[in-house]
C-alpha cells in the first residue's frame, strides 16, 4: 500500500523520533498563525520579517525551510484588470503626480481608484483613497453600483478623517466617475488639485493598483462570498489588516499606521 519494501518500513519504524524543542514548536505555531492570518500570502521574506517582529531571530532562508516543512505554500498573484472608463465628453486633468509615489509629508498627494468584487448576489464596487506618503487607506466606499457617488463618499471619508488644508494633489485614472463635473466640483470645493493618469498607463497609478491586487489575489482569492454584506465585512477586515499589520518594504518594513506614528514622532522632535 505504501509502495515501500518491508525492510525499509521496519527500518523507519525503529528510528528514534526527532524531538522538537518547546521554542521551535512555538516558532512553528507562530509561523502558521501569521501565514494563516495573511490568507496564505506571506512569502519567506515577509514572513521572516513578521517573525522578527514577534521576537524571533530568524533569516529568510531558515524561514523558507520552515515553510517547506510546514507545507506553507503562497497563493500566486494574478493579473490586475482595469475597471473604469472615461466618458469622452468630460474634460481630463494633466498627470501632475508623474509617478512621484513618495511625497515627503502626509496629505500632500492622495490617490484613488475603483475595482470590482464578485459575490453570489452580484457585483460590488470598491472605491478607495490612499495617502501616498504612508500608503495608508484613509477613505473607502463600497456599493453594488459604480457611480460618481461611490468615489465621492470615499473622498469625503478621507477628508473627514484627515482634515487636510488646501493644496492636496488627488490622482486618479480617467474613469468617468473621476472626470465627471460632480466629482471635479468636490475637488475644487475641497481645495484639491486634480491629476490623472495617461491613457492606458496603469503604472501611473501603480500603488493603488498594487493595493487592489493584494486585496483580490492575496486576501479574497478562493474565498466565496455568498452575500454583499459578507464581502463588505471582509473588505473592512482587509483594510484594517493592510493599515495595521501588513509590512511594506517601501516603508522600511513598517505598517502604514506605524510609519505615520514614526514620522510624527520624528517631526515633533525636530
TrEMBL record:
Residues 102-264 form the Integrase catalytic domain. GO terms for biological process: DNA integration. It comes from the Bacteria. InterPro entries: HTH-like_dom (IPR025948), Integrase_cat-core (IPR001584), RNaseH-like_sf (IPR012337), RNaseH_sf (IPR036397), Transpos_IS3 (IPR048020), Transposase_IS3/IS150/IS904 (IPR050900). Pfam families: HTH_21, rve, rve_2. One of its GO terms (molecular function) is nucleic acid binding. Gene3D superfamilies: Ribonuclease H-like superfamily/Ribonuclease H. This is Transposase.
Amino acid at each position: 500500500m505504501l509502495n515501500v519494501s518491508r525492510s525499509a518500513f521496519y527500518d523507519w519504524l525503529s528510528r528514534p523520533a526527532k524531538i522538537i524543542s518547546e521554542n521551535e514548536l512555538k516558532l512553528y505555531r507562530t509561523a502558521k498563525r501569521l501565514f494563516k492570518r495573511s490568507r496564505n500570502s506571506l512569502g519567506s521574506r515577509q514572513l521572516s520579517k513578521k517573525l522578527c517582529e514577534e521576537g524571533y531571530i530568524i533569516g529568510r532562508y531558515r524561514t523558507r525551510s520552515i515553510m517547506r516543512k510546514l507545507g506553507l505554500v503562497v497563493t500566486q498573484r494574478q493579473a490586475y484588470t482595469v475597471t473604469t472608463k472615461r466618458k469622452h465628453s468630460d474634460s481630463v486633468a494633466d498627470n501632475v503626480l508623474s509617478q512621484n509615489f513618495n511625497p515627503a509629508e502626509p496629505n500632500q498627494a492622495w490617490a484613488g481608484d475603483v475595482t470590482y468584487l464578485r459575490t453570489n448576489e452580484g457585483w460590488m464596487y470598491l472605491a478607495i483613497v490612499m495617502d501616498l506618503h504612508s500608503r495608508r487607506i484613509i477613505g473607502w466606499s463600497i456599493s453594488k453600483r459604480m457611480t460618481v457617488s461611490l468615489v465621492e463618499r470615499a473622498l469625503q471619508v478621507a477628508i473627514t478623517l484627515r482634515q487636510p488644508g488646501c493644496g492636496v494633489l488627488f490622482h486618479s485614472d480617467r474613469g468617468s466617475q473621476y472626470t465627471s463635473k460632480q466629482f471635479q466640483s468636490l475637488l475644487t470645493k475641497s481645495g484639491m488639485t486634480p491629476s490623472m493618469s495617461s491613457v492606458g498607463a496603469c503604472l501611473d497609478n501603480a500603488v493603488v493598483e498594487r493595493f487592489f491586487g493584494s486585496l483580490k489575489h492575496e486576501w479574497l482569492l478562493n474565498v466565496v462570498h455568498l452575500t454583499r454584506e459578507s464581502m463588505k465585512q471582509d473588505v473592512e477586515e482587509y483594510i484594517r489588516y493592510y493599515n495595521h499589520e501588513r509590512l511594506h518594504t517601501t516603508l522600511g518594513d513598517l505598517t502604514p499606521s506605524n510609519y505615520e506614528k514614526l514620522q510624527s514622532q520624528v517631526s515633533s522632535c525636530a
